[in-house]
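Researcher: I'm comparing several assemblies side by side, and this is the next one on my list. It has 670 residues spread over two chains. Same procedure as the others: predict the full complex and return the structure.
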Amino acid sequence: MRQLRKPYLLFLGDVDLKSDAKTAFGLRDWCRNDVMGEWSLPAATVSLDLPRHSPSQAAALGAGSIVVGVAAVGGVLPAHWLPELEAALDAGMDVVSGLHSRLTSFPSLVQAAQRGGGRLHDVRHSDQVFAAGTGRKRSGQRVLTVGTDCALGKKYTALALTRALTARGVPATFRATGQTGIMIAGAGVAVDAVIADFIAGAAEALSPDNAADHWDVIEGQGALFHPAYAGVTLGLVHGSQPDALVLCHDPSRDTVEGYPDCPIPDLQHAIDRYLEAARLTNRQVRCVGVSINSSSLTDAQWQAYAASVELKLGLPVVDPMRGGVDALADALLAR
Amino acid sequence: MRQLRKPYLLFLGDVDLKSDAKTAFGLRDWCRNDVMGEWSLPAATVSLDLPRHSPSQAAALGAGSIVVGVAAVGGVLPAHWLPELEAALDAGMDVVSGLHSRLTSFPSLVQAAQRGGGRLHDVRHSDQVFAAGTGRKRSGQRVLTVGTDCALGKKYTALALTRALTARGVPATFRATGQTGIMIAGAGVAVDAVIADFIAGAAEALSPDNAADHWDVIEGQGALFHPAYAGVTLGLVHGSQPDALVLCHDPSRDTVEGYPDCPIPDLQHAIDRYLEAARLTNRQVRCVGVSINSSSLTDAQWQAYAASVELKLGLPVVDPMRGGVDALADALLAR
């Protein structure tokens, strides 16, 4: 599993669109205690409203890594951002990036890392070797967020559920499977970046044996009904051996995003298919609830929608952004 | 897609177990016209009964590649085999290997390849970049072999079916997804070696648009019910967009090989699950028959078993080794 060095200095480059700084805002919101501050170039117009520290100041205050918190055009790291990252490396920090272009492809960064003794983390890519899945049942409890599509709240739901469990004194760990999640957790496996033969094995490595009452809350990826990414999803389901599933859904979508010929399945059908897939490695698996991304609905619409889905499925229905996920935590802990 | 240069010289090293030369025998049996001869070290005790040519003789006769046709202990290429491979490279040939250890990790081979202008092909590994699956429907017909487990005849069935179609004058191409298949076909994609995000995309690239009456016969991988490899299987199903499936099964197995807690599903259940998965990208998909690896059965047992499965499923049941696959070809072409 990849391990990152906290606390973070969040680097915004010369960003001028808030939406391009999604990663930085996510880190601020989900691991505020691990974020020391922000840094950006003079042309930047977006701020996180955090203390500003230069790389060398941050290093002196004990920062472990500078994190590229913005999406650059085409996923390419602009050359004029490099001096700030080199300064962080020269001060002994690591650099963390989720961009397509690899930090290790920039000789000046590799050299600065060698000078400073820091590491370059390309969290979108995987450099770790995993074994094939074994199917061996592991100790501890696991809940996995699954979805009717990509990008509709699986990470957010898992983070919120981890918080809700921790607030009740239940030992729980968020297990990250995507780049932003890995930055938030400071550890994890980008399962979509591993060699196909080892998807389930990587998922097994992500949530190792644990105390009997401990919950791993595992960030889901993709969807079983997605024509490009279902293989990743299925391997993650099998390797996670979940005791519980939470289905995530966005009622504004009729078809898989970017695949207009691919309808989003009925929720009960989706739950049945996920449970069947998960039973292969955990016959006790159950679905404990549904997490809705209801941003397209008015309050009144949301109330009506949630009530109708609850009635139909007989499961708690939440939106983490509208009332939180306590009902999911209740269902998870009810035995 | 990887492309290999035929004809082949099959290299046996110093093999003394016929079972270790499975790849070489497979190539001899399935692409005899592409095999110029064999070569081995003096200590070898296994022969393919083919003409013996040294690498330089073979190159003079027009050989394109020397193929490592034996499994070495631990998948590692023994150092004392290198001089023969270097001789082939110096004579202008390529080297093809399916071993775990990469040809490119041996400096003497890399240097010899540079001298001779040949290429080093590690068919177990993937060096190609694929796009994510698009789900776009492609022209031409496709049949995919799927299975209740790994290693029970999916490649063999696909090869036999390709032969049966070709014998009838039906345009058909075997599409290889594993290393031995790629060597036989001289082209293909090792789908279990691609980055997880691109399994379906790689499968799409493997069987591009084709003439309306052309059949791609695609070698399946893994099994939907396999706790380690189901992700590869599902991505391959989705990207292949099969019009037809053939289910492969070995009745001597009660559980997935190496996974004693994982029962092999009922055949009808397996067919239903595969059809459901395949419908995501091709709603017209149908199962045209079952291919049995009946090596554990006597002739009488096989007759009784085949009859009972045919009756139960209402589908043709064949063993390619016992009577061939004509019934599958009939079912495929029946409309």
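Model: For your comparison table: The domain at 2-122 of chain A is CATH 3.40.50.720 (Rossmann fold).
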